[in-house]
Design goal:
single chain; mainly alpha; 73% helix; elongated
Amino acid sequence: MNRFLIVLTASLSLAAIAAAPFVYGDPHRPGRGPGARLGMPPRDGVPGPLAHLQRLRGELGLSDDQVAQISAILRSAREQNAPYREQLRGGRATVFEALLADPNDLAAAEAILDRQASAQRAIRANMIAATSRALNILTADQRETLSRLVAERKTKMPKRRS
């Protein structure tokens, strides 16, 4: 959950300053990558980023209307990404199964990898669009505060391997 908050917050901040609005971990490690983050189970009955939105509400001074609009955007993005998350399940195991069925059929394995890469791109594109819509709801002061919070959070986080 904390990693998703960091990615979401970083995405919001980076989009606000017109930079690349996503930072993803190594998709080859378990529990990482866009499918893993977006498919996390709800915490305390509140789905993923919505739980963090409640925490940010006070720090950013969000109105009830802003929270409702951002919640709707996040839910919509989650619904849009559901088929793509399902497509990503299985990962390398699906490729391995295809190769077990016919070790010489590299085209089938590559096709599976292409579909998974396409699903990851679609998830990222949907999250970028949702981030943009959510940032448009914030006032300039709220975006500035969010940028400061992200910068503070970034300094507290250990450096990741590239």
